[in-house]
């Protein structure tokens, strides 16, 4: 073994799992460990797993198998780790298994199997911690767990009930990130609208100032840091109305990611969705009146058990009326341990797939129509990368990794992380094309 212990890291799953990985990596570096770039130079490997759907379970089990074959000393954490029996049944030789959001426990196991060096180089740790995202954007996790019990989801069983981070702590982290060059903060949780409920919206302190642990107050304070602030995983509760003026005033990005999953009241009830009794359409119309530039993103499930053709028609009608900007659709797939598995009237696979295709076809037209309105507009973009075709950037309507991009055809001279104004010269179903100087085309 070398003088400085080296830990390899494999990070799978959603942005919430990514943030867990960042916390563990930050603590490793804080204690003087090195992060190994490959299996062979690592003294042991941590695999942060996902267990959301069966395909993710398989990918996680494969990743553990690969780490065992290539390195041999493996600690497992993350959502699949919450099902320790499954991991051990497939890979009994792993050193230890923990659930998600368990940085302290993972560190204990690492200490047991690979003690830290005597003299940690704590000065090497940047105050913002270590990030797996590019330098110019970051995910900011404001809470863990969820108080809802959607019947298709096992996350509350894996991650527990809602536990919010005090606003002062979140703002302190955000401040460090911005000071380190982050230009876009993507606020994540399982249910962003519920932030602070578990703490009874307690007042916390940030730089000596009181801030309520509540989403409106947090969003307002984050908006003052100078970076783009994007809210993900928000449900259409009445108090979300308070966020829209902050968007209209340019304080935070006019963007809401609101996973609705369905529009038929009957299916929403079977799903036990949060805010299912709210009139989402009325709310969306009112929001757009306050903030005409609002981009709405949502995801839907086609073929949930019991979904009739009439339920599905209601969903398509909703989409036509709501004119959402960005939509994803998955066919329903049962997850081991989910309550929905016990529901009667499963929808045949071919019907699920056909409904998903119909939904996506309808939405492609809606998205293209909405994007076409941007033609000729001057918009601000954040550059992600520069290629020989120009700069690949995003505007307020594009969350990283999930939405479209803005291709800046004359952006060769830009740097990743630059925020610049461009003119939209062409539009497609998901992406925009633009130029810094439209007259030079
Ligand atoms: S809101 Fe529903 S789908 Fe989302 S984490 Fe909570 S239980 Fe799961």
What distinguishing features does this structure have?
single chain, S-adenosyl-L-methionine, 32% helix, five-stranded mixed beta barrel, OB fold (Dihydrolipoamide Acetyltransferase, E2P), pyruvate-formate lyase- activating enzyme, 3 domains, globular, alpha/beta, rSAM_sf, Rossmann fold, transferase, five-stranded parallel beta sheet, 441 residues, 4Fe-4S, binds iron/sulfur cluster, 20 strands
How would you describe the overall organization of this protein?
It is built from 12 helices and 20 strands. The chain is globular and about 60 Å long. The longest helix has 24 residues, at 349-372. It folds into 3 domains: 6-113, 3-Layer(aba) Sandwich (Rossmann fold), CATH 3.40.50.12160; 137-373, tm_1862 like domain (pyruvate-formate lyase- activating enzyme); 377-436, Beta Barrel (OB fold (Dihydrolipoamide Acetyltransferase, E2P)), CATH 2.40.50.140. It is of the alpha/beta class. Iron/sulfur cluster binds at residues 146, 148-150, 153, 155-156, 190-191, 274. Iron/sulfur cluster is lined by residues 146, 148-150, 153, 155-156, 190-191, 274.
């Amino acid at each position: 073994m070398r003088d400085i212990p080296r830990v390899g890291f494999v990070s799978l799953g959603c942005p919430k799992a990514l943030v867990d990985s960042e916390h563990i990596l930050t603590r490793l570096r804080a204690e003087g460990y090195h992060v190994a770039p490959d299996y062979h130079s690592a003294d042991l490997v941590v695999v942060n797993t996902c267990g959301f759907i069966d395909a993710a379970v398989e990918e996680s089990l494969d990743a553990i198998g690969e780490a065992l074959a290539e390195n041999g000393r493996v600690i497992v954490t993350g959502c699949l780790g919450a099902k320790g029996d499954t991991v051990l049944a497939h890979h009994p030789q792993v050193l230890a298994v923990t659930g998600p959001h368990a940085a302290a426990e993972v560190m204990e196991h690492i200490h047991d199997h690979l003690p830290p060096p005597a003299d940690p180089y704590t000065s090497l740790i940047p105050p913002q911690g270590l990030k797996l995202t590019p330098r110019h954007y970051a995910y900011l996790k404001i809470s863990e767990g969820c108080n809802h019990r959607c019947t298709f989801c096992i996350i509350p069983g894996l991650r527990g009930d809602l536990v919010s981070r005090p606003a002062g702590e979140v703002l302190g982290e955000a401040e460090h990130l911005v000071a380190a060059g982050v230009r876009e903060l993507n606020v994540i949780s399982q249910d962003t609208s519920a932030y602070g409920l578990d703490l009874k919206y307690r007042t916390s302190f940030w730089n000596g100032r009181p801030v309520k642990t509540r989403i409106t107050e947090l969003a307002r304070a984050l908006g003052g840091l100078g970076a783009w602030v994007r809210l993900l995983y928000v449900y259409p509760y009445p108090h979300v109305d308070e966020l829209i003026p902050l968007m209209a005033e340019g304080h935070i990005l006019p963007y809401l990611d609101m996973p609705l999953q369905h529009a038929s009241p009957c299916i929403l009830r079977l799903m036990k969705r949060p805010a299912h009794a709210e009139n989402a359409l009325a709310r969306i119309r009112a929001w757009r009146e306050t903030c005409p530039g609002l981009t709405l993103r949502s995801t839907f499930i086609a073929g949930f058990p019991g979904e009739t053709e009439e339920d599905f028609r209601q969903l398509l009608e909703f989409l036509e009326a709501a004119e959402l900007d960005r939509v994803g659709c998955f066919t329903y797939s049962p997850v081991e341990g989910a309550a929905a598995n016990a529901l009667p009237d499963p929808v045949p696979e071919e019907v699920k797939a056909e409904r998903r295709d119909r939904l996506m076809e309808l939405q492609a037209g809606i998205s293209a129509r909405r994007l076409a309105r941007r033609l000729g507009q001057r918009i601000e973009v954040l550059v992600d990368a520069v290629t020989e075709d120009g700069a690949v950037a995003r505007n307020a309507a594009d969350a990283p990794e999930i939405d479209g991009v803005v291709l800046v055809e004359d952006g060769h001279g830009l740097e990743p992380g630059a925020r610049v104004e461009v003119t939209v010269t062409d539009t497609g179903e998901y992406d925009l094309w633009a130029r810094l100087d439209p007259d030079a085309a």
